[in-house]
Write a structure and sequence with these properties.
This protein is α/β, with parallel strands linked by helices and 466 residues long. It folds into three domains: 217 residues, FAD/NAD(P)-binding domain, CATH 3.50.50.60; 112 residues, FAD/NAD(P)-binding domain (3-Layer(bba) Sandwich), CATH 3.50.50; 106 residues, 2-Layer Sandwich (Enolase-like, domain 1). 31% of the residues lie in helices and 26% in strands. The chain has 14 helices and 22 strands. Helix 7 links the parallel strand 9 and strand 10. It starts with a strand and ends in a 9-residue tail after the last helix. InterPro entries: Class-I_Pyr_Nuc-Dis_Oxidored, FAD/NAD-bd_sf, FAD/NAD-binding_dom, FAD/NAD-linked_Rdtase_dimer_sf, Lipoamide_DH, Pyr_nuc-diS_OxRdtase, Pyr_nucl-diS_OxRdtase_dimer, Pyr_OxRdtase_I_AS. It catalyses: N(6)-[(R)-dihydrolipoyl]-L-lysyl-[protein] + NAD(+) = N(6)-[(R)-lipoyl]-L-lysyl-[protein] + NADH + H(+). Pfam families: Pyr_redox_2, Pyr_redox_dim. Keywords: Cytoplasm, Disulfide bond, FAD, Flavoprotein, NAD, Oxidoreductase, Redox-active center.
């Protein structure tokens, strides 16, 4: 049995960042991961490969549609799906190899296999060949992540009824792709295949897309995606899916009750969310139990059992890689005896469609529910110089500020490259900035970021470019 200061179960964004930070702090650390590559869902079959396909499909659509022609670029594009998938895989491999390098650099041992608790302070690792390695540590961090949530009546076989992993590796462009779930994963992967030529129908149980986001922002994104050709069936539930050799027959009904209808599709993507992954983790050996959502509770990343810590998708909070990274650092710092906090009020969210949606802080709906008086400043990208000359004017920037103190409470953006701009407000809000602080800060011209300043100015009706 080999002994470490810290053993981390899971090599995703939470796990590998925790391992690296522990190594930086001089701790002996092992990271247990059973995949052939490090990086977890995010790097292997989530964030990174989906972004590779989103980028490639955007360029393809620009070339095959009217965008290039309007710019005076005349081409006759041909889709080489195999090469598109190949470059995606090569990008992912480069990233996962990068984590291996960082492990070596920071003296982190990668224990290859599937880890499970074997009592307090002990982890048993089973390799693919069946061999077992036993580890001991004063502190153990559970960072096992999440898996796609199944849908009753719809059995995922990754042949015709697929999850997000299957949607990243389809052998051809579907004529008709049905996406169940209008959240981040469904909209992003639906966008990829629509751009490549699929008819895409999105079915959502709720009466809106992007649950949890600012409602006005979500409605704007829906209009943009519908204009591009994506069809939405909101307030609908799928009750049955029957696959055949080359298609799927779906039965759906209004969520509020009513007559059923049938839809035929080449493929069905189930993207109704994710659930914590705790299968075979040996929680019973230390007396830990999940809640009704399958999550492990934590108090400042500590579980109810001394020496066992919990971070990332397997516990409460948004299932986002950057949230897991923040928790990873905070958890290791606390293990080391250092004070550290994660500000859960300022974790940004992004949907990488085109236009993108990015937000941080409170939504208007949340502020109204709290009874908090607030002011709104908005600025449309139609009035932004850089957006206009780039022909990407859909969307707006919206700033919500306290009616009395002017402190920025929430920011909601839908438009071009807003994923790269939301960080400005994350920093500002971390320092409790006012809308006036942003309004008085010089921004470079011409940039899309000027829309953020103009929205902040417009909290007091001072926007000069509308």
């Amino acid at each position: 049995m080999k002994t470490y200061d810290v053993v981390i179960i899971g090599g995703g964004p939470g796990g590998y960042n925790a391992a690296i930070r522990a190594g930086q702090l001089g701790m002996s650390v092992a990271c247990v991961e059973g995949r052939a590559t490090l990086g977890g869902t995010c790097l292997n079959v989530g964030c990174m490969p989906s972004k590779a396909l989103l980028h490639a499909s955007e360029l393809y659509e620009a070339a095959v549609g009217s965008e290039f022609a309007n710019l005076g670029i005349e081409v006759t594009p041909t889709l080489n799906l195999a090469q598109m998938m190949k470059q995606k895989d090569e990008s992912v491999t480069g990233l996962t190899k990068g984590i291996e390098f960082l492990f070596r650099k920071n003296k982190v041992d990668w224990i290859k296999g599937w880890g499970q608790l074997d009592g307090v302070g002990k982890v048993k690792v089973t390799a693919d060949d069946g061999s077992v390695t036993e580890l001991a540590a004063k502190d153990i961090v559970i960072a096992t992540g999440s898996e796609p949530t199944p849908l009753p009546g719809v059995t995922i076989d990754n042949q015709r009824i697929i999850d997000s992993t299957g949607a990243l590796a389809l052998p051809g462009v579907p004529k008709h792709l049905v996406v169940i779930g209008a959240g981040v994963i469904g909209l992003e992967l639906g966008s990829v295949w629509r751009r490549l030529g699929s008819q895409v129908t999105v079915i959502e149980y709720l009466d809106r897309i992007c649950p949890g986001t600012d409602e006005e922002t979500a409605k704007t994104l829906q209009r943009c995606l519908a204009k591009q050709g994506m069809t939405f069936k909101l307030g609908s539930k799928v009750t049955q899916a029957t696959p055949s050799a080359d298609s799927v027959s779906l039965t759906l009904e209004p969520a509020a009750g009513g007559g059923a209808e049938t839809i035929e599709a080449d493929y069905v993507l189930v993207a109704i969310g994710r659930r914590p992954y705790t299968k075979g983790l040996g929680l019973e050996t230390v007396g830990l139990e999940t809640d009704k959502r399958g999550m492990l509770s934590n108090q400042h990343h500590a579980s109810g059992v001394p020496g066992i810590w919990v971070i990332g998708d397997v516990t409460s909070g948004p299932m986002l890689a950057h949230k897991a990274e923040d928790e990873a650092v905070a958890c290791i710092e606390r293990i080391k005896g250092h004070p550290h906090e994660v500000n859960y009020n300022l974790i940004p969210g992004v949907i990488y469609t085109r236009p993108e949606l990015a937000s941080v802080g409170k939504t208007e709906e949340q502020l109204k529910a709290e009874g908090r008086a607030y002011k709104v400043g908005k600025f449309p990208f139609t009035a932004n110089s850089r957006a206009k000359i780039n022909h990407e004017t859909e969307g707006f920037a919206k700033v919500l500020a306290d009616a009395t103190t002017d402190e920025v409470l929430g920011v909601h953006l839908v438009g071009p490259s807003v994923s790269e701009m939301i960080g400005e407000f994350c920093v500002a809000m971390e320092f409790s900035a006012s809308a006036e602080d942003i309004a008085l800060t010089c921004h470079p011209h011409p940039t899309r970021s000027e829309a953020l300043r103009q929205a902040a100015m417009n909290v007091e009706g001072m926007a000069m470019q509308i």
